[in-house]
C-alpha cells in the first residue's frame, strides 16, 4: 500500500486550449489530402479556362476574318455561306452532343440547382465543352450575331466540374462551388474583367450565393485572368475610353432617363421573345424549328444574310468593331438604326437554334441604341450616349444592373461615368421587369429543369 503511495502519478495531458485547436485546424488546412485534391482541381481547371478563353478569342478573330474575306470577294456569297454554316452547326450539335446546345449560361444555372444534379453529368462534360467551343466558332464564322462569352461560362463550369469529379470530389457543396467558380472565371477570361466575373456569378448565376464559395471563386478568376493576361497583356476589351459628361444639365438628365426607358423596354421585349423561343411554343414557326431543324436554321441564316446585304455588311458578326468605332466617336449616317438591325439578327440567330452567346452582342445593340438616341441630344457627348446605351440594354436584357455597370466600366475604363451608368442600369432593369416578369437566364434554366423532371417521370413510368 505504501509503495503505491510512493509511485509517481501518471503524466497529465496538457490542457486542450485554443492554441492546440488552431494547430489542428492549420494541419488539416495545409496537410489534408482531401483539401489538396480540391485545390488541385480548382487550380488546374482555372488555368484551362484561361486557355479556353484564349482559344475562343483567337478562334473568333480567325473565323470572323475568314467571313470578311469571303464577303470581300463577293457580298452575294453570304447568301450561301451563312445558311450553310448554320446548318453545319446544327448538325454538329444534334449528331455529336445534343447537350452542348444553347447559350451556356442557362445550362450552368440549371446545373447549379440541387434539382439539376442529374443534369450535370450530361451538360458539364469535357465532350460538351469541346463541342460547344467548335459549334460557337462555326456560328460566329457564319456571320451570325453570336458572342463566345456565354459559351465560355458553360465551358468553364464543365471544366471545373469534370476535373473535380476526376479527383473524386463528391460533396454537393464543393461541386456547386466549383461550377460557380468556373462560370465566373469564364466571364473574367472572356472580357478580361475579373471583377465583372465575380459580380456576374453572384448576381446572375447564383442568387443564393454562399460566402464559403467566395475564396474558391476568387482563386479561379485570378488564375484564369493571369493566363489571358500572359498572352494578350492587361488590355481593355473596347480600349481606353476617357468619356464623361461635360456638365450635368437638362439634356444630360434627359439622356439618362430616355436611354434607361428605351433600352430597358427593348431589353425586356427581347427577353420575352427569347423565353418564348426556349419554351417551345406551339406556334407553327416553332413547330417547323422542331420538325425541320436544318431547313429552319438555313432559312434563319438566309434572312440574316439578306439583312447583312441591305446594311452593306454592318449587321454581320458580333459587332465588336462597330461598337468600338462608336465608342471612339466614329460612325456616321451608316450607323443610324444599327441597333434595330442588330437586334433583328440577334433574335434570328437565337431562333435558328445555333449555339452562341448574347453578352457581347447585347452590348453592341445597346451601343447602337445609344447612338440613335444621342442624335436628338446634341449637347451630350456621343460616346457618353453609347456607354449609356450599352449599360441600359445589357441591364434590360439580363436584369443584372450591377453586372452591366461593372462590365462596361471595366471594358472601357470609364469610371468617371459611374453615377449616370448606375442610374441608367437601375432604370432599364426596372422597365424590363414590367415587360418581362421573369429573368431571361432564370426562366431558361427553369425550362431545362422542367424538361429534366418530365424525362425522369417518363422513365419512372416505364414498366
Molecular structure report:
There is one protein chain. The protein has 463 residues and is mainly alpha-helical. The chain has 2 domains: 36-232, Clc chloride channel, CATH 1.10.3080; 250-449, Clc chloride channel (Orthogonal Bundle). It contains 21 helices and no strands. Helix 4 packs antiparallel against helix 14 and helix 5 (105-112) runs antiparallel to helix 9. The mean pLDDT is 81. It is a multi-pass membrane protein.
Write the topology of this structure.
Layout: H1 2-6, H2 18-31, H3 33-73, H4 78-96, H5 105-112, H6 117-123, H7 126-141, H8 149-166, H9 172-191, H10 194-205, H11 214-232, H12 250-278, H13 284-291, H14 293-310, H15 320-327, H16 338-351, H17 359-374, H18 382-398, H19 401-412, H20 418-435, H21 440-461
Helix pairs in contact: 3-7, 3-8, 3-9, 3-11, 4-7, 4-14, 5-6, 5-9, 5-21, 7-8, 8-9, 9-10, 9-11, 10-19, 12-16, 12-17, 12-18, 12-20, 12-21, 13-14, 14-16, 15-17, 16-17, 17-18, 18-19, 18-20, 19-20
Summary keywords:
Clc chloride channel
Mean pLDDT: 81
- The total strand number stands at 0
Which CATH class of the largest domain? Mainly Alpha
Q: Helical region count?
A: 21
Return the string of H and E elements.
Answer: HHHHHHHHHHHHHHHHHHHHH
CATH-level-2 architecture of the largest domain: Orthogonal Bundle
The unreliable regions are none
What's the CATH H-level superfamily name of the largest domain?
Clc chloride channel
Distance between the termini: 79 Å
Amino acid at each position: 500500500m505504501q509503495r503505491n503511495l510512493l509511485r509517481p502519478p501518471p503524466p497529465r495531458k496538457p490542457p486542450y486550449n485554443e492554441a492546440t485547436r488552431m494547430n489542428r485546424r492549420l494541419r488539416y488546412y495545409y496537410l489534408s489530402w482531401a483539401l489538396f485534391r480540391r485545390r488541385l482541381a480548382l487550380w488546374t481547371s482555372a488555368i484551362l479556362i484561361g486557355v479556353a478563353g484564349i482559344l475562343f478569342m483567337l478562334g473568333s478573330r480567325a473565323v470572323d476574318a475568314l467571313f470578311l474575306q469571303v464577303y470581300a470577294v463577293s457580298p452575294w456569297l453570304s447568301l450561301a455561306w451563312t445558311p450553310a454554316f448554320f446548318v453545319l452547326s446544327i448538325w454538329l450539335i444534334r449528331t455529336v452532343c445534343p447537350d452542348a446546345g444553347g447559350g451556356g449560361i442557362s445550362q450552368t444555372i440549371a446545373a447549379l440547382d440541387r434539382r439539376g444534379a442529374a443534369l450535370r453529368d450530361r451538360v458539364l462534360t469535357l465532350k460538351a465543352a469541346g463541342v460547344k467551343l467548335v459549334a460557337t466558332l462555326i456560328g460566329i464564322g457564319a456571320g451570325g450575331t453570336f458572342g463566345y462569352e456565354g459559351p465560355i461560362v458553360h465551358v468553364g463550369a464543365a471544366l471545373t466540374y469534370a476535373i473535380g469529379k476526376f479527383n473524386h470530389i463528391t460533396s454537393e457543396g464543393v461541386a456547386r462551388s466549383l461550377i460557380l467558380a468556373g462560370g465566373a472565371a469564364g466571364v473574367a477570361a472572356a472580357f478580361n474583367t475579373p471583377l465583372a466575373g465575380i459580380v456576374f456569378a453572384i448576381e446572375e448565376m447564383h442568387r443564393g450565393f454562399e460566402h464559403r464559395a467566395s475564396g474558391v471563386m476568387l482563386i479561379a478568376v485570378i488564375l484564369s485572368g493571369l493566363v489571358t493576361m500572359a498572352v494578350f497583356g492587361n488590355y481593355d476589351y473596347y480600349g481606353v475610353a476617357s468619356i464623361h459628361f461635360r456638365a450635368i444639365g437638362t439634356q444630360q438628365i434627359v439622356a439618362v432617363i430616355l436611354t434607361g426607358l428605351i433600352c430597358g423596354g427593348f431589353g425586356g421585349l427581347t427577353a420575352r421573345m427569347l423565353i418564348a423561343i426556349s419554351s417551345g411554343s406551339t406556334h407553327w414557326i416553332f413547330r417547323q424549328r422542331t420538325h425541320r431543324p436544318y431547313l429552319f436554321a438555313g432559312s434563319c441564316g438566309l434572312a440574316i444574310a439578306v439583312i447583312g446585304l441591305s446594311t452593306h455588311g454592318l449587321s454581320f458578326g458580333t459587332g465588336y468593331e462597330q461598337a468600338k468605332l462608336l465608342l471612339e466617336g466614329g460612325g456616321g449616317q451608316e450607323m443610324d438604326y444599327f441597333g434595330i438591325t442588330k437586334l433583328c439578327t440577334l433574335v434570328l440567330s437565337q431562333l435558328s437554334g445555333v449555339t452562341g452567346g448574347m453578352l457581347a452582342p447585347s452590348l453592341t445593340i445597346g451601343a447602337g441604341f445609344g447612338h440613335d438616341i444621342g442624335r436628338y441630344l446634341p449637347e451630350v457627348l456621343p460616346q457618353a450616349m453609347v456607354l449609356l446605351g450599352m449599360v441600359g440594354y445589357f441591364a434590360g436584357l439580363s436584369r443584372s444592373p450591377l453586372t452591366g455597370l461593372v462590365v462596361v466600366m471595366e471594358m472601357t475604363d470609364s469610371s468617371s461615368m459611374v453615377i449616370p451608368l448606375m442610374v441608367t442600369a437601375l432604370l432599364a432593369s426596372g422597365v424590363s421587369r414590367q415587360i418581362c416578369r421573369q429573368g431571361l437566364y432564370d426562366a431558361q434554366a427553369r425550362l431545362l429543369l422542367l424538361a429534366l423532371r418530365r424525362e425522369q417521370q417518363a422513365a419512372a413510368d416505364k414498366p
